[in-house]
Amino acid sequence: GDDRESAAAQMRILAGSLPSGLSSPDGPGLWAVYRLHMTNHDDVDRQEPVSVFVDSKGRAYRRLAEALLDLTPDQVETAFIPTEGLDLPALTAQACQLVEIQAADRFSEAQLNHAERLSAEREKIERYYRQQESAVAGIAIDNIRQAKQRELLERRRADLAALDHRLILVPDLALVGIAV
User: Fold this and answer.
1) 3-class secondary structure for 32-101?
2) What are phi and psi of 28, to 5 degrees?
3) Which of 53, 112, 146, 153 has the most CB atoms at less than 10 Å from its CB?
4) Can you tell me whether residue 21 is helix, strand or coil?
5) Tens-digit pLDDT profile for residues 47-103
6) Could you tell me whether strands 11-13 and 76-78 are parallel, antiparallel, or unpaired per DSSP bridges?
7) What does the alpha-carbon distance between residue 99 and residue 4 come to, in Å, rounded to a whole number?
């Protein structure tokens, strides 16, 4: 048998639990929650849930999926929901595809914001070292000036290399749970 079928929890949303204007679809569906983890193994370590709901016909309900994340335990109950006629492996595969698209969009946005932030940081570092180099250029004694210039160059390279190392974010998408 398919292990994913037996691992799916069955839940019923209690009346009035969803935000106004939002209703659950007629009939059963599959709700999947994944965790998107983004890190650069230095100063960025973000996790956020990615939720998707697909009905028995495979239609996605994005607003419902997001609203389900906000429900409290007393707004849902475990229930026996007949799953015959539901192709759980196909719905699970479709949910996974939808989640991967959502996660890719979120990751791209996070990567772009991170790159912009580091670009601004790079400009500050460059400006700082230009100011320092101008000050060092005014030193009258040659060997002291040259030693300070070498020291500044080495520090600048190290600071920029550390910044480049922080630029790359690594995503990880993991299934948290599935409910029918």
Assistant:
1) EEEEEEEECCCCCEEEEEEEEEEECCCCECHHHHHHHHCCCHHHEEECCCCCCCCCHHHHHHHHHHHHHH
2) -75, 165
3) 53
4) coil
5) 999 999 998 888 899 999 999 989 888 888 887 766 677 788 899 999 999 999 999
6) antiparallel
7) 17
Q: 28: which residues sit within 8 A by CB, 6+ positions away?
A: 55, 56, 81, 82, 83, 86, 180
3-class SS at 133?
helix
Diameter over CA atoms, the chain = 87
pLDDT at 135 over 90: yes
Query: Which residues, listed in sequence order, are joined to residue 68 by a DSSP beta bridge?
Result: none
Strand partners, 55: 29
Residues with Cβ within 8 Å of residue 66, at least 6 apart in sequence: 51
- Asked if residue 64 lies in contact with residue 22, where contact means CB atoms within 8 angstroms, the answer is yes
**pTM, entire model:** 0.76
**72-106 burial, b for 16+ CB within 10 Å, e for fewer?**
eeeebeeeeeebeebebeebbebbbebbeebbeeb
pLDDT above 70: percentage of residues in the chain: 93
The residues facing 53 across adjacent strands are 31
Judge contact between 156 and 125, C-beta under 8 A.
yes
Name, in order, each residue with C-beta under 8 angstroms of 154's C-beta and a sequence gap of 6 or more.
none
